Amino acid sequence: MTALDPTATDRPVAVPFAEALAVWVRVGLLSFGGAAGQIAMLHTIIVEEKKWLDEKRFLHALNYCTLLPGPEAQQLATYIGWLLHGVRGGLTAGLLFVLPGALIVLAMSMLYVTARGLPVVDGIFFGIKAAVLVIVVQAVIKMAKRVGDAPVLKAIMAGSLFAILLFQVPYPLIVLAAAGLGALLLPPPEEAAPPARPAPGRYAALLGNTLVWGAVWWAPVALAALLLGPGHILTQIGIFFSQLAVVTFGGAYALLVWLAQAAVEQKGWVTAVEMADGLGLAETKPGPTILVTQFVGFLAAFRAPDPFSPMVAAILGAAVTTWVTFAPSFLFIFAGAPFVEDLRHNRLLAGALKGITAAVVGVILYLAIWFGLHVFFGAVGSFAFGPVRVPTFDPLALDWKAAALAVIAFVLAFRLKLGLLPLIAVMAALGVAVKLTLG
Fold first, then answer.
1. Is the same domain home to 188 and 278?
2. pTM score, two decimals?
3. Which of 75, 105, 231, 300 is the most exposed place for a label (fewest CB within 10 A)?
């Protein structure tokens, strides 16, 4: 039996669970290339190679996941696993999609805090920063192409950039405002139609699944609060990244904007340069890029370890962060997916999602500016004029070695069309060479 919607006519084929398990292990180990590459790989394996779903059913599943906050490629794998083998299949697919990358990020985070100061390690991260700047710019370009030419969308893009750059408006408020503007001002899509009537029993299933998976999501946070107190770093990490998980429309790069605002500028858990290092780590391993959150949680707990040792606290911080980052995805799929198809062609929802997409382009452009200033100039200040705060920097503080590596990275990516992983490998090697020769 599968968990497929009984009203659908294009059911997946019957698949032995052992065969599916082998495929999900393969997917977890090979899921490089960001969300776009991971979705393409899932399509190749599930639709073209295995023929477990047809094109229409795969696109339906993808449409479900693009409407949800969080890592859409991991949610797509979870949803396909759910279609094939119910909750057992969804858990297997979703967990295996994340686990290999999470273990790699944990190992690299441990290396990061124990081996910094060695020229080779410092050089690797120095070179990766240049690649990260290119990656973020590429994300802006790709997202911008998806937005469309409507004046309202262009205004939302520009307004989002200036709202966060000049007025430090919190990212969640930008998302809400963009959704409202998109819903009210954008014309309805051609395929807009009244939502379908929900199948009998769906509301009871929604309530039950929400309670169960909500408890799963919040259990480690509640345990940390009970044993260590509400002010402990593990509790604070759990609450913060749980909030982050429900507004991560637009992928990991949009999420980094709120991380930059909160984890760097407000909480002081990590520095801007460490954020760039974390994104570089997240891009070099399989699995979702959003695993950069695990790196931030690791460092935050490492620096406030009581009553644990720093490394034990850091591992616990990484585990809590990863848990609350991905547990909501299972709630959204198991509890909410049956309703998403009913809403997919709703006019207001379609407009809201377009508005959010436009806002995400603006905030990712801000992220590129923010990363660039901190990587090239180190300390970045601000000039206040009423409610406006303009970023400032000292031109004489330019790190010419970082700037030179960034120029090389842009040439390799945009002129020579070097792929993501080769780009990171080349820049890491160049970073080591710079540190060993020039210091």
1. yes
2. 0.78
3. 231
